[in-house]
Design goal:
The structure holds 2 protein chains of 2 kinds. Helix content of chain A is 34%, strand content 16%. Chain A contains 18 helices and 19 strands. By secondary structure, chain B is of the alpha/beta class. In chain B, 29% of the residues lie in helices and 16% in strands. The two termini of chain B are 17 Å apart. In chain B, 61% of the residues are buried. Classes of the chains: A alpha/beta, B alpha/beta. At the A-B interface, helix 2, strand 1, helix 4, helix 5 and helix 7 of A face helix 5, strand 9 and helix 20 of B.
């Protein structure tokens, strides 16, 4: 049964990247990875200056699907390539054990319409009955739907996550989603290019999440506006593939259009044998092509930035903007520390978060911990958290939850016994979905609760009205769960 | 998509940077499939009675002035739907979240990117650069002032006059009825594409500045159709914005189509010109209703198309209006004054010239200005730049009382055909019964409109998303003028149309040979003008200069052979080929 599904999906992934246009791009001197993918997918230039970009894979989810199907129906158009389109249910699903489409009454119509629309249009659905259901950005690399050098459109701002495997994630709204359904293309303004070179080495226990939080905190949440971001440098290369996905995931919190890391041998290793990855000779050819996906020496970027990673410690957000970041040993900033124009923002954040300017962030008491989301719920994330909690117990009165990024991740984690580690420590072990990250399914905190969360957004009210969110890595979140307050996971060990 | 016109409304200041879409529409308001988006807009902030949009007087705000990076965060288009539902039409901010910005344009909300210090100071009631203190809930955090704002687009000139094709400004503005009257089946993008200048005038403050604003896509429709369309759809030009399509809306709603044995599930609105022709020729579409000029132009270009029935044989929906206080009393007073039309060789230019001539006014004595769209014309009129501007139904009825009708084309001119039904010669030959059934179903719809105008108005109100009273006024006017043909072709009216187009330089010839263009075989016999005169199935038009059939082929491309590129596409040459050319020329 499972194999059947896999074979079906595999049908459209028969071969790897080997396309004239890609070679054309290669022939140009000094191209970036982005250039190579972009040129290889350019259908044409429009009179308005935008580029019509071919979409190799279209992954969509249940928050947009019902609206999009209605819009498509109204326009009278058909799905151009149902074979390249996959729908998942992730935003609206319940993540409690024994869930069904009806567990959350408000979600039922979304799930029903997603299911009916997918069936009507011939789109594969990874719904609750699928062993591969999960968060769209986790599922698409996990199944090998997103491959190096491919373009992957998704109606979600975190479409950039697949940059971790060297795919070009393209975020859309609902109207553009319909455009992709009907045409398999997107009309896009070509973004500028930014390279962020992560130099030096990472301290032990400093993760990809800490890295990207540091970068956002350092440069601000719209620094990469209008840019495609490539992460480079020795620290990037040393990051495991799943960490690269975490890094790319939060490019959207940096304001960027998309982000990626040049694929290397570790990506090929990670993808080998995935359900939709190429096989046999196709695999070899694909891997050979992927080797070309690097930015040539001397390739030009509009913006080139370096980070000395040696100075980075585990990070946490203190405010209501992803750029409100400090190290775990840091103190909550004061309006007096910043230029006059920024003071109101700091005051608002302190107000909302009920924090005192100048107070250490470590020690702030926590009501809930959430480990999940497309940012940090892959297997390695759960392993990192489990390593912290193993043999210990969450603080009295604190509610801690783990929601795996996909049903596949859940299966793998359970095979390793991680679910038992978490349960023994007093964590809830859920089914996969977006859950408390997006909060659209109603899984959210209560007003006044303070949550340490491995998610990507700490906007006011993001996890429920009046809920105070601190973004952090899985290890930091796990440590907070044990201590009942924000604490350096290194100290917790 | 709602058309963007002049926005004259209350502006509210949200004086902080990085306002994300979670604030604009909290997640809980996305839970229903059809939630109350208006209630959801800034729902958490609006719990605070001091927040600007909670305060009396600002519940009707239509303009938001915000800080940088407005709309960052989630790409939820729902946030735009919430702005729209609340009534927000214009956003002014130093910068926007990128996908959010695109989403706005696609939903008819104008995002103006530019420095807003002056506006902020004005709205905050302060003159300096200092910012009001306080948070989303703070008493002073979001100042506002009830000032009159007029955001208007500088009316576009003709293509190239300002480096920006006038057509690109088409879609955000009111029903730009461009029928591609150049007489050629040139694809014309039904979308606004690029950039134009916007003036934002603050009445009280005498403050004026110009921003560039970009219309990224503004796609009321997916802008081009690369693949064959399903057979159960019909293209009706301007179905979604003008009144041509009322019989079709009625026929669908009342089940006439089904009763006649055709399974039509909906209509594709299109701009009436070459786009429609391409769609029908791309295959699968049994029938389309288009501008006569587009049909004739396409046939003259060698496209194997046939005119199969008449649709609209007069111009009762077109009027020119003046401001209520204007001293102009009739068209005869136009000499020495300024009159707006949409653009060169358009229906509005044609009718303006024909009306002036018919009224004995030398068109040379009237300054005629191509202002791009009806919205552009009306804005120019309100601001005194022109004296009279064109309006089409249902805009005429919507603006009833606001402007005074100076003259109506149908009052001055004899009937002139606007719309006809067409089918490809092949389809007509192979499926004459389907074409006939469609014609009959439309005829049923027309009969229903004349018998039950108010009920028809309710159907049309839904189809056009306009208020029922507006639809009722429009339908009554058009019923009185016998606007919709029951299918009959009016050759005199068609000849006048062609002659007029020739007179304004839009057509190469003053006369055309209808026998080579019309095939009446699918018309019910009582509607045929010259029974038997036009042979059925004649395929003399098959020598296309334009390989229309290639327009329906797939776009080559994609980096993954066997996945991205269909078998018919030449491997590895994405930017070549007819399909690509068609795609790229039609944003």
């Amino acid at each position: 049964m499972v194999k059947c599904l896999l074979l079906t999906i595999c049908g459209w992934c028969a071969e790897g990247l080997r396309n004239e246009s890609m070679r054309e791009a290669d022939a140009r001197v000094m191209a970036t990875v982005f250039d190579k993918i972009w040129e290889g997918h350019t259908v044409g230039r429009r009179a308005d200056g935008r580029t019509l970009v071919y979409v190799d894979r279209h992954v969509m989810h249940d928050l947009h699907a019902p609206h999009a199907f209605t819009m498509l129906r109204r326009s009278g158009r058909a799905v151009r390539r149902p074979d390249l389109t996959v729908a998942v249910t992730d935003h609206m699903v319940a993540t409690s054990a024994g869930r069904t489409d009806a567990t959350i009454p408000g979600s039922a119509p979304f799930l029903a319409r997603t299911r009916a629309g997918a069936a009507e249009l011939g789109i594969r659905l990874l719904g609750l009955d699928s062993p591969w259901q999960g968060i769209v950005h986790v599922v698409s690399p996990e199944l090998g739907i997103a491959l190096p050098g491919s373009t992957v459109a998704c109606p979600d701002s975190h479409a950039c996550t697949v940059g971790g495997v060297g795919a070009l994630g393209l975020a859309t709204g609902t109207t553009e989603l319909v455009h992709v359904l009907a045409t398999q293309t997107l009309a896009l303004k070509r973004p500028k290019q930014m390279r962020i070179t992560l130099d030096g080495v990472l301290a032990s226990d400093v993760t990809a999440k800490d890295l990207i939080l540091f970068v956002i905190g350092h440069w601000g949440s719209d620094m990469a506006r209008g840019h495609a971001v490539e992460f480079a440098g020795p620290v990037t290369r040393a990051l495991p593939v799943e960490g690269r996905m975490t890094l790319c995931n939060m490019v959207t919190e940096l304001g960027g259009r998309t982000g990626l890391v040049a694929p290397d041998a570790s990506v090929a290793d990670w993808l080998r044998g995935r359900a939709c990855a190429p096989e046999g000779a196709d695999w070899d050819a694909a891997v050979a092509e992927w080797a070309e996906l690097h930015s040539d020496a001397g390739a030009a970027f509009d913006t080139d930035l370096q980070v000395d990673c040696r100075v980075i410690e585990p990070q946490v957000t203190w405010g209501i903007d992803p750029a409100h970041v400090i190290g775990l040993s840091g103190r909550v900033p004061s309006p007096d520390d910043v230029p006059p124009a920024d003071r109101d923002g700091i005051r608002r954040a302190l107000d909302y978060m009920h924090l005192q300017a100048g107070a250490p962030i470590a020690g702030v008491p926590v009501d809930r911990v959430f480990i999940g989301s497309c940012t940090n719920a892959r297997l390695s994330d759960l392993q990192a958290a489990a390593a912290v909690v193993a043999g210990r117990h969450v603080a009295a009165g604190l509610r801690a939850t783990v929601v795996p990024g996909s049903t596949g991740v859940k299966r793998d984690a359970e095979a390793l016994g991680l679910h038992q580690v978490f349960r023994d420590a007093g964590f809830e072990w859920g089914e996969s979905g977006c859950s408390m990250c997006a909060g659209v399914n109603g899984e959210e905190g209560r007003p006044g609760q303070r949550i340490v969360s491995t998610t990507n957004r700490n906007f006011a009210g993001r996890q429920g009205a009046g809920v105070m969110t601190h973004l952090a890595s899985p290890a930091t979140a796990a440590a907070a769960a044990l201590a009942g307050r924000i604490v350096d996971s290194r100290a917790a060990r | 998509m709602r058309r963007f016109k002049t926005v004259d409304g209350v502006a509210a200041l949200l004086d902080q940077d990085n306002i994300d879409t979670d604030q604009m529409l909290p997640a809980s308001y996305m839970r229903g499939v059809d939630p109350d988006y208006a209630a959801g807009l800034f729902a958490l902030w609006r719990r605070d009675p001091a927040f600007v949009l909670s305060r009396p007087g600002w519940e009707h705000a239509s303009i938001l002035v915000a800080g940088a990076n407005f709309g960052c965060g989630s790409t939820r288009e729902h946030a735009c739907w919430a702005l729209d539902a609340f009534g927000i039409r214009v956003l002014v901010a130093p910068s926007f979240g990128e996908v959010f910005r695109d989403n706005c344009v696609k939903n008819g909300i104008l995002p103006i990117t530019g420095p807003n210090d002056g506006l902020r100071a004005l709205l905050a009631g302060r003159t300096g650069s200092g910012q009001p203190a306080g948070g989303p809930g703070g008493a002073d955090g979001h100042g506002s002032r009830r000032v009159r704002h007029v955001v208007r687009r500088i009316p576009g000139g003709q293509s190239g006059s300002a480096g920006r094709p006038g057509r690109d400004r088409h879609d955000l503005a009111a029903g730009g009825r461009d029928h591609g009257l150049g007489g050629r089946a040139t694809p014309r993008a039904p979308v606004a594409a690029d950039a134009a200048d916007a003036d934002l005038t603050i009445g009280d403050a005498q403050m004026r500045t110009t921003w560039r604003w970009c219309l990224a896509a503004c796609a009321a429709l997916i802008p081009f159709r690369p693949g064959p369309a399903p057979a159960e759809e019909i293209v009706v030009s301007h179905y979604a914005d003008l009144m041509y399509g009322t019989p079709w809306a009625v026929a669908l709603k009342k089940g006439f189509l089904k009763a006649r044995g055709v399974d039509v599930t909906g209509f594709v609105s299109s701009d009436g010109g070459g786009t429609t022709i391409r769609n029908i020729m791309a295959g699968g579409l049994p029938y389309a209703e288009v501008a006569l000029s587009a049909a004739v132009g396409a046939i003259q270009d060698g496209i194997p198309l046939r005119i199969v029935d008449g649709a609209v044989n007069n111009a009762a929906d077109l009027v020119w209006v003046v401001l209520p206080g204007s001293k102009l009393q009739s068209i005869k007073d136009m000499a020495g004054h300024k009159l707006a039309f949409t653009r060169a060789k358009s229906t509005t230019e044609l009718f303006a010239i024909l009306c002036l001539r018919a009224a004995g006014v030398d068109p040379a004595t009237v300054t005629r200005l191509p202002l791009g769209t009806m919205g552009g014309g009306l804005t120019a009129m309100v601001q005194g730049a022109v004296d009279a501007a064109p309006e089409l139904e249902p805009l005429v009825s919507r603006n009833e009382g606001k402007y005074r009708i100076l003259f109506s084309a149908a009052d001055i001119l004899p009937p002139i055909t606007q719309h006809v039904g067409v089918a490809s010669a092949d389809f007509l030959r192979d499926h004459p019964d389907t074409v006939r059934a469609l014609i009959l179903a439309r005829q049923d719809g027309v009969a229903y409109i004349y018998a039950h105008p108010d009920e028809a108005a309710e159907i049309e109100a839904e189809a056009l998303d306009i208020p029922v009273p507006v639809a009722k006024r429009a339908i009554r006017r058009l019923v009185a003028a016998h606007y919709w043909s029951d299918g009959r072709l009016d050759y005199d009216a068609m000849a006048r149309s062609v002659a007029g187009l020739h007179a304004i330089g839009a057509f190469p010839t003053a006369k055309v040979d209808w026998s080579a263009m019309v095939d009446e075989s699918a018309l019910p016999s009582e509607l045929r003008s010259v029974p038997g005169a036009v042979k059925s199935g004649s395929n003399a038009l098959g020598e296309g200069t334009q390989s229309a059939s290639t327009l329906g082929t797939s776009i080559p491309g994609g980096s993954i052979p066997g996945v991205g590129a269909p078998a018919s596409a030449t491997a590895g040459s994405p930017p070549g080929g007819g399909a690509t050319a068609s795609a790229s020329s039609k944003p």
